[in-house]
Amino acid sequence: MRTLSLTPVGSYREAMGHLLVLYTQVDRLIMEICAERIATAPDEPAGLALAKQVGDESRHVCIQRQWMERFGSDTTPLISTAQEEMIRQHFRELSWLEFLADLYLCVEALGSEAVEEIVPLADPGTRESLHIPLRDEQDHVAFGLSRLRHELARLAPQERHAFIASLPARIERLTVAFHGLGLGVADLFARVGADYAALSQAVARRRDEILDQVAA
Ligand SMILES: [Fe+2]
Ligand SMILES: [Fe+2]
């Protein structure tokens, strides 16, 4: 069967290379952000989970770096040094509850949903490089969600409801801030063959599922 590809191969490789760089930068930032949190974790299980995640993210960075070298990606960072510092600072200033919401609901759950949407479109090598990282991200999301529910259950009902009610706007603000970084992600996704509107819908569905789980 004759197939018609509208995406030139060179464009795919370049765009996927940039997405791999972005994913690796985000993993490294998460590693640093979690490492900083260990000292102020509210209890030992939380500290141990954060420490495990630091190890996981470090492994993801290693796997991705090795793959990017073989793939021949241009490894120029997409997120600037100043933007990285702004992101670290954002997480530093959050309460534990806000930290759980921003890191696990937004970055880990919704970020990995977007990455998972890309997997079926990726070349075999890139797909393989994402296998271990995406499996670990599921663990991280599970920890974040269960811990968020645990903390919410300890709040007074009014406080609990207020926090849950604030979550959609919180996610929206972070999404706007992420797009405000000007990384051109919509274009990169389109160039690897993703239907960006469909991808955004998948992320929105995942957001709704998670919000239901948090509120249940
Ligand atoms: Fe990761
Ligand atoms: Fe993660």
Explain what the structure shows.
Helix 1 runs antiparallel to helix 2 (about 45-70), helix 1 (about 10-40) runs parallel beside helix 3 (about 80-90) and helix 1 packs across helix 7. The protein is an all-alpha fold and about 220 residues long. It has one domain: Ferritin, core subunit, four-helix bundle (Ferritin, Up-down Bundle). The longest helix is centred in the first third of the chain and has 30 residues, at about 10-40. The protein is built from eight helices and no strands. It binds fe (ii) ion (2 copies). One fe (ii) ion binds next to helix 5.
Radius of gyration: 18 Å
Under CATH at level 1, the class stands as: Mainly Alpha
What is the CATH third-level topology name? Ferritin
- CATH H level: which superfamily? Ferritin, core subunit, four-helix bundle
Number of alpha- plus pi-helical segments: 8
User: Which consecutive residue ranges, at least 5 long each, have pLDDT under 50?
Assistant: 1-5
Secondary-structure element series = HHHHHHHH
Please give the share of residues in helix.
over 70%
State the secondary-structure class: mainly alpha
Please tell me the overall pLDDT.
93
Number of individual domains: 1
Bound molecules: fe (ii) ion
The CATH architecture is: Up-down Bundle
Strand composition percent: under 5%
Major β-sheet, in short?
A: none
- Write down how many β-strands occur, each being a DSSP E stretch of 2 or more residues: 0
Shape descriptor reads globular
How widely separated are the two ends?
A: 49 Å
